[in-house]
Amino acid sequence: TESVLVGEHGRDIPQSCDVVIVGGGVGGIYALYQMRQRGLSVRLFEAGSDVGGTWYWNSYPGARVDIPSYEYSYSFDPELQQEWRWPEKYSAQPELQKYFRHVVDRYDLREYITFDTRVTATRFDEATNRWHVETDGGEKVDCRFLILATGPLSEPIFPRVEGIDRFKGVSIHTGQWAQGGPDVKGKRVAVIGTGSTGAQVSPELAKEAEKLYLVQRTPAYSVPSQNRPLSDDEHREVLENYDAIRARARKNRSNLGIDVCDDSALDVDAETRDRIYEERWEMGGLGFTAAFGDLYTSVEANGTAAEFVRKKIRQIVMDQGLADHLMPDTLIGAKRLCVDNGYFQMFNRNNVELVDLRENNLIEITEGGLLMERGEIPVDVIVFATGFDAITGALLKIDIRGRDGLSLREAWADGPETWLGIGTAGFPNLFLVNGPGSPAGLANMVVLAEDNVNWIADCIAHMERAGAETIEADKAAQSEWAERLTEMAEASIYPLANSWYVGANVPGKPRKFVSHMDYPEYLKACQQSAKAGYSGFLLK
Ligand code: N01
């Protein structure tokens, strides 16, 4: 018999179920929907107080999607697609969270979710082939299948700087804004970090703050989003052509509906090239680096796009001395390209000051601000836009033990290895959504989550039919997958940058590129494995 608790609404909350899902974001919500559709009993644990994951936590001013909203949304139900009205091309965080809340309520999923609860440990019991799951709320649940939808960018990291706990003002990481973002009106604010987040949050804070210090370690490339309200006509056109829009994106390496040009940037003259870059700049968004086919494979071709953006920075930033400090000199796109709404324009405000760590290093954080080599900067608020222990951080935070007590932390000590980004050897009946080895971080994560979850749900159904108790990635298949990922990475510019893609933003993390770069190829591999009775997996 199943042990049960009685929930708020008088419904039994099972302590023993078919599936436990960790994470109530983009991936977890759809996993919950799909498992319920398949008639499985499910519990979902979410650390936040509401659903949305990334779009719950990152509620900082300026947070906004950089893939058009009508693409960055679920495709599984045509009715859902048809009834939702996105207000802007790139909708802001509150709108995204509203959407994810709507999905949860529309399909009656909320009652299966336990909020404000972190899964701390999970252990596979080989005698029963079940996972034991423990939470920080002291709950113990066991399940047959464990789905980890913890997100690749959900474990915030802070600079390792002396005095970080000493600061008497308000300090907050952008990825924890939901816990209570500060009111910066009339305050002196320091933002540390100039990645996608820093480029989004700073212009918004600068509008409110008395003074904004932007602390920059590496200048970033950013292109304008050219965001705008989605007109009724555009909205209608999207609704009428949704299938075609989705189908088109599926053919793209990142599952995006952008126009990709296959020509080499080096085969056209400089004038033509600049005209093409100008068109892309005006169009806005991530399509900028799809202007030519070799910007991610040739350092020389990449340099032409980089130079174009540098020229733009010079044109936008009025103070040319300041523009010098903002000039990126690395490869464009090798660290994820920022998409902004007035980032470089912000530097023309007289309440914004750039603090360039390359010539004025941060020594420590004091009670009242930042102690720099050149003196103290007193501030009231410190905003850490310093990023995440990406891809593996949230997974390895959980003490996960597979066969023979093997810990995932040990198994992945040299970097994660998976087969299809979905399973990993030694951890039976454990499935990853948007995991390492999938195109997570490079592709539309909503659609990727759907593809992963559909695959998992079909796999579970297959196991039922075949009478299999466990499924586990085969080590050989996993090694082959790792080789393919490395091969693709080495043919690209990605490994050349110190980015979260390769783990370079976390001291001591093994340097490895573990994302799949080609969505159509990725999907085909997943489908082929399923078709062949889940090849690359051991079913028992
Ligand atoms: O994090 P990041 P993020 N001292 O790691 C700096 C997605 N996203 O939160 O470049 C000083 O990219 C660090 O400096 P450096 C998107 O996939 C999307 O901005 O390492 N500075 C860097 O400038 C994105 O890529 C959107 O030298 C320090 C910054 O902090 C991913 O999330 C919006 C430092 C971190 O940049 C992560 O973006 C936001 C230190 N000790 C995020 N440590 C959209 O637009 C770090 N930095 C949809």
Automatic annotation (TrEMBL):
SUPFAM superfamilies: FAD/NAD(P)-binding domain. Keywords: FAD, Flavoprotein, Monooxygenase, NADP, Oxidoreductase. The keyword Thylakoid does not apply. Its cofactor is FAD. GO terms for molecular function: flavin adenine dinucleotide binding; N,N-dimethylaniline monooxygenase activity; NADP binding. It holds the Pfam family FMO-like. InterPro entries: FAD-binding_Monooxygenases, FAD/NAD-bd_sf, Flavin_mOase-like. PANTHER family: L-ORNITHINE N(5)-MONOOXYGENASE-RELATED (PTHR43098). Belongs to the FAD-binding monooxygenase family. This is NAD(P)/FAD-dependent oxidoreductase. It comes from Microbaculum marinisediminis.
